[in-house]
Amino acid sequence: MADLCSELRIDALAAELRRLDPSLPLLGSEAPAELLRFSADYHDYSPVLVELLRGCRAQLVAFASSLDQVRLVAGACARHGVPLTVRGAGTGNYGQCVPLQGGLVLDLCGLNQLRHCDAATGVIEVEAGSLMGALNQQLAPLGRALRLVPSTARSATIGGFIAGGSGGIGSLRWGFLRDPGNLLGLEVVTLEPEPRLLQLDAAASAPLNHAYGSNGILTALRLPTTALLAWQQVVVGFDSWDRALAAAQALPATALQLHALTLLDGPIAHKLPWPGGCPPAPLGQHRLLLLAAPDALEVLPAWLAAFGGQIHWQAPEGESRGLPLRELSWNHTTLHWRAQHPDWTYLQMLLPQPERPCLELLNQRWGDDLLWHLEAVKQLGASRLAALPLLRWRGELALGRLMADCREAGAVIFNPHVISVEAGGLGVVDADQVAAKAAHDPAGLLNPGKLAGWLSNPG
Ligand SMILES: Cc1cc2nc3c(=O)[nH]c(=O)nc-3n(C[C@H](O)[C@H](O)[C@H](O)COP(=O)(O)OP(=O)(O)OC[C@H]3O[C@@H](n4cnc5c(N)ncnc54)[C@H](O)[C@@H]3O)c2cc1C
User: Does residue 458 have a pLDDT over 80?
Assistant: First the structure.
């Protein structure tokens, strides 16, 4: 799939950038290993993507730490007709920041100031390259926290989360990133010979939310925050999967305040690393991981015992050793499993309600090749269970059959083995995303190849 720009064009672009801003850090052909490093993300979870993205690499990497530098790079790329792919921390799982047509990768990790936190509303304005973990540390003394973060919050940027992520810790309360209210506004630089700096309100920002940076360079975001709570990490063991599932279904309907709920099939729990002091899971024990409000702890032990669950470990967040419980959830579960089983991959889906018949049908058909990892989420205001099951890799045909079985069983698949924004979502073109690309990137140079709606109907 590798498709590069002519070296002449890249050399001319690099020369212009060096002339216009000698302080702008640039990497070029003299640093081939670094070019590869800044072209990669975590798409190796998918054997399909590994093949599709083989050889894709940047020809130039620029590191911007100011708005002026972003505009300078955007303008120069537009004038030279060179593709530009924005990069945060490069932790995406679908090759979102892998440049399909070479060109320049623009790393925005240096653009990382918290510009403002409104004391009355908790609304923040923050630059796109801010790491979410660091941002939460800045917000804590103000009594605030981000509503939603991925399990990679310690290493990933807020701009990359909005452009490439979907949800995570907090989705149990706040739904998914694209739900109205989770993004209040964006500051955006266009890709034009004279780039414009736009301030978009919530409605105008929506088409740039989860568009893989293909229709605008996000330089700052306006986001709501939530009151800071001292979440307690709780690990619960169950001997019976059915009772563990029943508890996971029932908990979000209680008045107990939870921030995350992860349910792990016994074989997964048995192989996972656990926080310091938490006993490993014996074979056959399924585990429910919770982030619960301190006042929930009075009720939880007896409530869980009624479902056959027993609390094996608990500790306030930030006060335990080793891995935080958050880093056993969402795609960290996949990461830890694959560290020991590199021949496994994963899927992402929203389970139908009731969940059990779907899980049973898939267990019957796929047996030991499929292990369940569920996450409680809110979808359109209702509590639901999402699944990120682990599956033994048996080739693309088997993957296709499994996805067909999941759909037959009523699940909605969010396919993590595809390149385009649309194919990884609901499979339909969002005309507003395409219109935003026409308005902000008329030459189609931003992360080319990722927005299917543009490829089928450019400009
Ligand atoms: C172990 C593991 C666990 C994960 N858990 C979760 C999870 O819980 N929830 C979740 O949603 N994701 C998860 N992810 C995926 C990923 O970590 C997150 O989506 C993360 O927020 C991406 O941020 P990033 O800075 O690494 O973005 P990158 O990977 O650098 O970029 C992601 C996309 O956004 C674009 N982009 C980045 N910055 C900008 C910008 N300023 N303007 C325009 N476009 C931009 C890039 O071009 C790319 O298309 C996980 C990944 C791993 C490896």
Answer: no
